[in-house]
Here is the input.
Amino acid sequence: MSGFLEAAAAAPIIHPTDLVGARPLVILAPHPDDETLGCGALLFDCAAAGVPCTVICVTDGSRSHPNSRAYPAMALADLRRGEFEAAVSMLAPYARTHWLGLPDCGIPPDAGIVDLLPPNALLLATWEGDPHIDHEMTARLAARAAAKRPDIALMLYPVWGRFTDRCVPVFHLHASPAARHAKRAALACHRSQMTSLIQDDPEGFVMEDWRQQHFLETEEIVIAP
Here is the structure.
């Protein structure tokens, strides 16, 4: 167990709708699949309770398999966009989605999301402690947006940071059984990242089975900045 998870083991538990309250929910995902890995159950339970939900995907995910000839960058981006839309439809059928299509591993520092945020929303973005440049940049985009919009509440969710030894105060989210089932179905939509669908790039990214099971079986986590 990582230091992060060990320290988080005794964190207080909160229900997703208690976390969101009367606010709309916006999930900011660096890549197509982060919305499901980090917040899929939260998104499902909030949407099922009638919370207005928006999911914004920042990058096009086109560098996960850079050597594939079957899926060159544009084709891979199209594939991953379809996976993103399918996953979100599993979790929150009436959610608004935005595909920014920014370069994978190349988010410009001046990218803006302010105009996409509904009034008084709770914005959930990846944690700056996630050891991936796109996750760090997404945290910065969210922080800048929240600074410009005092009506926005900002919280963070860890993805890769779960497996580090950094320790911060967190909350565990208590997901419903239906949310857990929907999250499993949504993660299966991301076939390019979770299976051997793309077979002509042995260096391409495929999430290990044990990590997939971790995200499916372990409570989701939020961090108050």
Observations:
- Residues 122 and 153 are 5 Å apart (CA to CA).
